[in-house]
Structure formats: structure tokens, C-alpha cells
């Protein structure tokens, strides 16, 4: 198995680190990542997917890159 993503992302508005808690090593392969994310996904009923993200600290929002 290749290297897993650590979900290291920073808020484009306030610079907060959005990497969450570590995922237990024995189940990381289910998530494809070593850590959870603190980003809040905002979805659209019309598009039936996450369309933008929100920072839990500053509440700033940005479009999801597809």
C-alpha cells in the first residue's frame, strides 16, 4: 500500500491548521488517511455533493476543488 494522506490543510482565510485527530493505525486503510480533517463540508441538495468547505475556527468558506 502507498503512503497515506495526512490531511494537512490550512484555512485560506485565517491559516488555521485543519488537520484533525489521528485515525487509529489499524483502520487508516479504510479512510485512506492518517488523520481526520477539521474542515466542515457544505453540501448542495441539487448537486448531491460537497460544494464548499468551512473553517471551524473563523467560519470562512471556500469552493471545493473538483
Automatic annotation (TrEMBL):
It comes from the Bacteria. This is Uncharacterized protein. The lineage of its organism: Bacteria, Bacillati, Bacillota, Bacilli, Bacillales.
